Amino acid sequence: MSNPNTDPTVSSARLHDPDARAFASDNYSGVHPQILTALAAANEGHQGAYGTDDYTRALGDVVEHHFGPGAVAFPVFNGTGANVTALQSLLPRWGAVVCAQTAHINVDENGAPERVGGMKLLSVPTPDGKLTPELIDREAWGYGDEHRAQPLAVSLTQSTELGTLYTVEELRAITEHAHAKGMRVHADGARLSNAAAALEMPLRAFTRDAGIDVLSLGGTKNGIMFGEAVVVLNPEDAALLDSMKYLRKMNMQLASKMRFISAQLVALYGGDLWLESARHANAMAARLRAGVEQLDAVTLTQPTQANAVFARLPKAAADAVREQYKFYDWDEAAGEVRWMCSFDTTPDDVDAFVDAITHAVSRG
């Protein structure tokens, strides 16, 4: 009998069910057809290596269109690489980063910021995943004390790991407070498109114009195959631009065939695909919330502001639903789960999922 993991003659159709849908993560989704088309087009002929290609040059124009003159993109392989490299660019060796306790850099990157990036993370608990100037000040102290890592950067996430959104006013309050203390501000924008769709604002309005210094610009969670970009938003920060050039290589994030990352980002952000896909994912999350919020056994634990739904339900019911659909526990002790919607989640997918939840909780 052939092994489907090693036998090259086994078709992909036998390896997975193409109709299967998951609500575990927007990383579970496939690649948007327009992105696949862009990758195929980028595969024609020869192009310069290490970013000296037409697609990376085009990405520069796209990034300036969204974030303003002088904004510079540095394509990288993945989100963790983007976050680590971006944060390193903001800090000296003795620097520390203030972040939410739930931040991806704190709980989902296996210590990479600290082990690979060599920085200290100073995390603070938040009720909704959002930092405030007051919360930042819980760790932004001890300046000049050689016994304490110096808090010199703030990292926030938009939308947050709890699916919540910062308003422009909240972001400006953070950046003004941080800059006044000599701190720079990084934004993890893995789901920045979902935030823009929900806020109904251009990307620049709640990044560069709100005082963010450097951004991890996401794509994988919104339909591309692989790749993100670090975007330096302040063109006057020559030291930051210079450091990114070398840090990307040191962190093994410099792609030789960079055109295949850049071509995807151009296809996503060069038109309205990023916004259309994010709007759809958000709408599916709103549909899911509406479908379960009347169920007595289901308690919604966070507002649904982007493409995530957080809820508590009996463990037996959750386990029963998981026999059909994959999703993650968020706080297992509290019975809290997270349901994510993607660019390719359909209304029928949501309705079938709601039916499965309704049936599971009705059985007690």
TrEMBL record:
SUPFAM superfamilies: PLP-dependent transferases
GO biological process, one term: amino acid metabolic process
Keywords, comma-separated and alphabetical: Pyridoxal phosphate
PANTHER family in the record: L-THREONINE ALDOLASE-RELATED, LOW SPECIFICITY L-THREONINE ALDOLASE
Names of required cofactors: pyridoxal 5'-phosphate
Matches recorded under Gene3D superfamilies: Aspartate Aminotransferase, domain 1, Type I PLP-dependent aspartate aminotransferase-like (Major domain)
Gene Ontology MF annotations: lyase activity
Protein name (Swiss-Prot/TrEMBL): L-threonine aldolase
InterPro entries reported in the protein's UniProt record: ArAA_b-elim_lyase/Thr_aldolase (IPR001597), PyrdxlP-dep_Trfase (IPR015424), PyrdxlP-dep_Trfase_major (IPR015421), PyrdxlP-dep_Trfase_small (IPR015422)
Organism: Zhihengliuella halotolerans
Domain Aromatic amino acid beta-eliminating lyase/threonine aldolase: 23-311
Cross-referenced Pfam families: Beta_elim_lyase (PF01212)
Similarity-based family: Belongs to the threonine aldolase family.
